[in-house]
Amino acid sequence: MAPDHDPSLPLDRRRFLTLGVGGAAVAATVGTALQAAPASAATSGAVLLAADEFDGAAGTAPNPGIWRFDTGAGGWGNAEQQTYTDSRRNSALDGAGNLVITARREADGSYTSARLKTEGTFTAQYGRVEARIRIPRGQGIWPAFWMLGADIGQVGWPACGEIDVMENVGFEPGTVHGTMHGPGYSGANGLSAAATLPNGAAWADAYHVFGVDWRPGSVTWLVDGIAQRTVTRADVGSSPWVFDKPFFVLLNVAVGGTWPGSPDATTRFPQQMLVDWVRVWQQS
Questions:
Q1: Suppose 256 and one of 81, 129, 219, 252 were both cysteines; which one would form an S-S bond, judging by CB atoms 3.0 to 4.6 Å apart?
Q2: Does residue 190 surpass a pLDDT of 90?
Q3: pLDDT digits (tens, 9 = 90+) for 177-189
Q4: Out of 53, 80, 130, 162, which one is annotated catalytic?
Q5: 3-state DSSP call for residue 196?
Q6: So where are the chain's domains?
Q7: Second CATH level (architecture) for the domain 15-282
Q8: Using CA atoms, how far apart are residues 105 and 139, in angstroms rounded to an integer?
Q9: What is the pLDDT of residue 25?
Q10: What is the pLDDT of residue 29?
Q11: Annotated catalytic residue 162
Q12: Residues near 243 by Cβ (< 8 Å), separated by ≥ 6?
């Protein structure tokens, strides 16, 4: 999604720890709304390690024990036009079980939105990482569900690795993209998969489940439980494979940028991304 980064302060709370595939750690702050949820057919036989179902009163903040905020402007490495805030105008629960991330055009013509992350509160390594999302639409609108290597503060991007579970650019309403970025295969050279709806349908018309099945040496993208592509260690050739370590999760809606282009006269604001749930499973 974006190479730029604003590292968080270290977490200074007690945390509990559960073990993922191969002993990978999945951590979350004590007292967060990490809760059990019924397994779908796609995850039958798997163990749910962590989830946020976004249950809460309308207008309240997403759980601060799980989600932190990246804030500010500056283009975020992609010439994006929005300023990210931690205001409830840009991110809040809707009271119906959704997190709503809202991109707005302000009275002065500027844009605001939100970028949430689990850096400092929650990391995952291997398993099934999924979210049920209804994306926004419109020229210049760029929603994303993605992950960054937790060592980004030490090694930078792209050495930390990036797994884009789902991205959409508004000029392609019927196509979503998944991409992996690492040293030697970042930016336009990332390893990617795309899923396109038939008959001119748009992804923004309904909720869909976007995920990755992440194992040692491989990542498979899934849309509504259907595998799209698998990338393995062999696909990066002589470049480093940087995906066998903890990653944190991000959700955001960008406005403008080098890939989606700017909003135009057809773009309607506000635009909202609705996130029904985020779940991390350990695959048996």
A1: 81
A2: yes
A3: 999 999 999 999 9
A4: 162
A5: strand
A6: 15-282
A7: Sandwich (2.60)
A8: 13
A9: 34
A10: 28
A11: yes
A12: 149, 161, 163, 180, 182, 214, 219
